[in-house]
Amino acid sequence: MNVHTKAPDLTRQKLLEAAFAEIHRNGFQAASLTQILADTGLTKGALYHHFPDKKALGLAVIEEVVRPGLAAVMFAPLADTRQPLAALQGLLATKAAEGDPMVVTLGCPLNNLMQEMSPVDEGFRLQLNAVFRDWIGVVVAALERGKAAGEVRHDVDPEATAFFIVSALEGCIGMSKNTQSVTAFRGCLAQLGRYLDTLKC
Question: Which residue has the higher pLDDT, 104 or 100?
Answer without folding.
Answer: 104
